[in-house]
Amino acid sequence: MSDKEKSTKHEERHPHLCKLRKEGLMQEIDRCSAHPLFICCKCGAKADRAEFLCQPRPL
Questions:
Q1: Spatial separation of the C-alpha atoms in residues 10 and 26, rounded to whole Å
Q2: What three-state secondary structure class fits 56?
Q3: Which of 8, 26, 27, 46 is the most buried (most CB within 10 A)?
Q4: Is the pTM of this model over 0.90?
């Protein structure tokens, strides 16, 4: 498996909240941000895990 394929599969398992918002998947956003520990420096979204954000930093 190439690095590009690995990267694509990783994104599919952990889509960024901004992508979910664009797709209108609000229930998925709620699941990813039920107990936020990180905030995105780019869009201000809060999430449980850093993998869900574009530019995460701890809250």
A1: 21
A2: strand
A3: 46
A4: no
